[in-house]
């Protein structure tokens, strides 16, 4: 190759202009020829480079707007490339999103649920909305509205009304058994219909009115709070400030005796009972185990002590109390307290079930605790105290009963059989406790161990996590055992139905096909509905695609994940989608991607013809499609389907010669799709799927005949185009071929499938379906043709026999032959002086012949020389019918019957013309002179006449055939001479055409001040042959 022009730099930009503020823009400079380039990027009007390197990344801003170009430089010659074409970068501000409140309207209160909407005035089709709070993303979803719950942070929003808690008289102090009345007042609003009461952090479900009465049996400090609820906003108040209620122990009675024990018979003994706190006490005296008082008043005097006065004296009997109560669940703690006026030096005895049994425990203090009760700990309990040796006991306390039952365990029940959910799908968790009714319990929920605000029996969470629950019994605030965890996953995306890919999208009537539908990322609980689109109706819209949906009748109630058409009929042609649903109420997935399906007759009347015969082409490569129709092509149109619906004309930006032919000079990925031919009456061809890409698999567009060889080639867009590749069939690796070609010697049904190729560095091709056509169908049609031909031939032969018989009976032939054949052959073909006309003559037995005169013509010497070897037994003559001669004719006329038979001609190999370029350069410059010469191998140029074509049209059609094999009109060259040149020859002697030459392409590449013409070859597809020239 002779390089006569500087290499050209090409600048590309991704994404295409205009771009939006903040987008990343990549400018890339490429020079195909040579290497070791240093790339410079420029921005107008500066002459200084803004970047070095073949890639320049920009974060789009208004300052980046302008024109960019690039150039390459290197150390060796050429030291610089031509500059690239300029690319204008336009930067547009991003559309502004506005957040608006849908409901409720201001004022807002902590705990409110607020619906926000994201509005974007410019453009449509926004498919995802990202939500942020304080610049932190909180959600990403397909809906433009979001529901948020305002946090309980005072000061950020309008404050909730405040509840005030007070204690109604009597005021304290409070002792075990006293009743305390509390009142909850909320100054703002008057329609509070429900009040919440809390002791510490525990909700008290038994109290719901404005006043609450509590009975305390245990000593301790109790804190209470309250809040209110109303029907309209604000629906709740703030919690009141806490009020503390202190329950103190009963005052202690102190007993003294004078004189100290022992006393002697006859002495006076004085017992005195003193309670230091408060006043107004009534005192009673008891002796031993008797429950009847022996005296009243704070002083008891015994005069003249005798043996009968010996014993223990108490001012009261023990009182047994329980904390927290009588009804216990396993695992609870309980404390029994034996209250007595005196405790110093006493030992306390604890009894269960019977007083005569041994004590279950004895303590030095007046309390007995069971840390974790069991069912067996239930029963009746007593206590008493004793001291001394021998021991003097107090009376037994009154009995106290403890009831212990098994603690109920909560169970989280998921109403569905699946744990993975999608955006918008209802999740229902229920907390079940097998004790009483659900209304007997207040419920608490936890996610990942953290308490949630929900208190209901059933909740619908919207977040991933492990959920547990437990209950608090309303009548006694007892808690159940916490449940085991149930984990759920909630996707931020809506469920998407996916149609399984078909091995082939076109069927013949009678075939069977099964469509499969699944939900991406989920397999449980789905029912599927199948829809067929009304094919490509522009007036009906399904979502954003221009076609409508019709529910397939046998999937109305829901079907499994497959749908079978068997046998397929023409009415099944259309585009199919599916949709899944599950749960109650039903949750629906998005519709699947559309799946076109064609059903054609056994012999489609048309087919799609691709000029390359491959179903995959390179991006930016030209693509031309047309409808090949048997018979009348009127009313046939090329149609297109890419998932955006079908159209009845060429895709946008395509050039349409006719409705049945479409072409584009530079195809892009958006031109990939399914193409087919369709008539006005609805007849259809088999469709052809076309893909574009940088790596392609050359595979046949139409089925391969069984037994034929098949070669699949993996090609790369740039040079070298032949690359090593891994070949896959139906997703399985077949083999690695270093040549990038895989050959199947004889195609069979087992070779049908989806093929693709892959190069680790260059990428992989799209998939292509390879099918085979059985030889039987061809042979059957051939047999039919042969059978028809035999029948027709027999009929024609029979007719000819009858015709010949009739001719034989009605006509006679007389042929005059000059006796001196050699002499006649030497005569000039133009001379008639030696011809002897027949004037008469008779031959016996020749009455049934037709008379004709034969003139022998002299052959052209050169023609005779060339053809003598193969046609030495050929008689060249002119037959002229003459009148029937008289019976007495000239004596030198010889009569004979002549049988004329057609001699088969030997098959000739048609010579192919070739175009020779003088000078034989691969690059030309403006003002260069070039000569095209048409050459037919092995033949003298003078034996032929020639015709020249440019861009598949005749040059100088008025002159038609030319004696000269040279075309000299090119030179000096300019841009108008660009095109494809080819020639055709016609032999003078027999008007036989040569094959049309390959085209020589002259491409003009005008860069700045230099025009470069690149010369290369291309096969000619179709050129209509001119009329043959008549020769005498």
Q: Estimate the mean pLDDT confidence.
A: 75
Radius of gyration: 55 Å
The poorly predicted ranges are 535-546, 643-648, 777-792, 810-906, 1006-1014
What is the general shape?
A: elongated
Strand content: 35-45%
Which structural class best describes the helix and strand composition?
mainly beta
Sheet with most strands: 6 strands, mixed
Give the N-terminus to C-terminus distance in angstroms.
Answer: 48 Å
What is the percent of helical residues? under 10%
How many helical elements?
A: 3
Number of strands: 85
Characterise this structure.
The chain is mostly beta strands. It contains three helices and 85 strands. Strands 29, 31, 32, 34, 35 and 36 form a six-stranded mixed sheet that branches. Strands 46, 48, 49, 51, 52 and 53 form a six-stranded mixed sheet that branches. It has a six-stranded antiparallel sheet with strand order 78-85-84-83-80-81, with no helix packed on it. Strand 12 and strand 13 form a beta hairpin. The protein is elongated. It comes from Clupea harengus (Atlantic herring). One of its GO terms (cellular component) is external side of plasma membrane. It holds the Pfam family Ig_2. This is Basement membrane-specific heparan sulfate proteoglycan core protein-like. One of its GO terms (molecular function) is transmembrane signaling receptor activity.
